[in-house]
Amino acid sequence: MTTTTSPAGTTATEPPVTEPPAPFLERFRVPGAFLIGAVLLLGIAPLALSDFRLNLLAKYLCYAVVAVGVSLAWGRGGLLVLGQGVFFGLGGYAMAMHLKLADAAVTGQTLPDFMQLYGAGDALPWWWKPFASPAFALAMTVLLPMAVAAVLGFFVFRRRVKGAYFAILSQALAAAFAVWLVGQQATTGGTNGLTDIQGFFGYDLDDPVNQRMVYFVVAAVLLLLMAAARQLFVSRYGELLVAVRDSEERVRFLGYNPANVKLVAYVVAAGMAGLAGALFVPAVGIISPALTGIVPSIGFVIGAAVGGRASLLGAVLGAVAVAWTQSTLSDAYPAAWTYLQGLLFVVAVGFLPGGLASLVTVLRRKRRTTDDPVTGGAA
C-alpha cells in the first residue's frame, strides 16, 4: 500500500501494484507437455507398436535417460561429458551381475554360466557376492557411478580442468574402462560381456507381457527424471550452474565455489547414466564393453547435441532420433555410419549449437532481421 498527498492536503491510499497473472497457456505449458508425453509413451505407444518395436523403443528411451543427464551437465553446465559410457556401463554391469546370479540360482548353480565356460574356478569372486542382494544391486546401479564421478570430478574440478582437457580426460576414462572389462574375461565376460539374461526380479524376460512391463518401467523412469531435471533447471542451483558456465570467475568473486557447483551436475548426470544402464540390461538382455567405450560415449553426446543440449525435451528427442537412425542406417551402411555420426556432431556444434530445438528461434530471428528496415531488410 502507498500513501499520497493531494494538493488540498488530504491523504489517499493507493492499492498495491500487482503483476498481471501469467497467461493460462503459459502457466500450464510445462505440465501439459509432460501430460502429452505420458499419454504418448504410456498409452499410445504400447497400443500402436508391436512387441519388437516396443522393445526397440525401450532401448532408445534408455539412451534418452542418459541424454537428460547430458543436458544438465553439458547444456546447463558447459561440461562436455564424453565419458558417460563408463557410468552407463557401471550401472549396467551392476544390474547384470545380480540378474546373472539370480538366473544361476534358479538352475541350482553357484556360478554364472560364463564363469563355468571360461574356467573362473569353483568359488564366486568376492566382489560378486554382494550383488546377490537385490537391494545392494539396485543401490549400486546409481551409487557406484556417482561415487566414481565424485572422486574423478573432485580432483579434476579442483585443479580447474575444463574445456577440451576435461573432454579428453573423460574419453580416456571410457577407453580405460572398456579395456579393463575386456581383460577380465573370467569375471566380466570379456568382449562378449554379460549375455543371455533370462529373468528380471523373478519375471521371465522371454514373456512378451514382462517385456512390456520393462518398457513401462523405462518410460516411467524417463518421465520422472525429466520432471526432476526440470526442477533443477528452474531452481536456484540451476541458475548458479548457468552462471558458472557463462562466467566462472564472477561466480567465484561472489563467494561460490564453481568446482562444487560443477561437481554436483557431473555426479547427478553420472547417476542418471548408471540408472539408464541398469534399465538397458532387462530391456535388451545384454551389457558389454562395446556399450561402455568411447564410441557409445560420443553417441550419447551427439544425440543431445542434435536435439538441443540446452533443451531438456530437445535432448531427449535427439537421443531417440539418433539411436533410431543408427539402428536403421548401420545395418544398411555399417562402414559409413561412423562418419555420418561424426558429421552430425560437427554440424550440430558448428552450425546449430542449440540443436534442432533452437531451429524455430533461429528462423524467427532471421526473419525479424530481414524485415527490420534498420538492418537493410524489407520494410
Give a brief rundown of this model.
By secondary structure, the protein is mainly alpha-helical. The protein has helices spanning 24-27, 29-48, 51-76, 84-106, 113-118, 134-158, 164-183, 185-188, 208-234, 236-246, 248-253, 258-284, 294-307, 312-332, 337-351, 359-371; strands at residues 2-5, 11-14, 199-200, 203-204.
Characterise this structure.
This protein has 16 helices and 4 strands. By secondary structure, the protein is mainly alpha-helical. A two-stranded antiparallel sheet has the order 1-2. Strands 3-4 form a two-stranded antiparallel sheet. It starts with a strand and ends in an 8-residue tail after the last helix. 38% of the residues are buried.
Mean pLDDT: 86
Structural class: mainly alpha
Beta-strand percent range: under 5%
How would a crystallographer describe the biggest sheet? Answer: 2 strands, antiparallel
Helix content: 55-70%
Overall number of strands = 4
- List the helices and strands in order: EEHHHHHHHHEEHHHHHHHH
The radius of gyration is: 25 Å
Instruction: Give the overall silhouette.
Output: globular
Distance between the termini: 46 Å
Strand order within the widest beta sheet? 1-2
- Taking pLDDT < 50 over at least 5 consecutive residues as the criterion, the unreliable ranges are 17-22
Give the number of helices. Answer: 16
Main location: membrane
Keywords: Cell membrane, Membrane, Transmembrane, Transmembrane helix
Pfam family, one: BPD_transp_2
Membrane topology: Multi-pass membrane protein
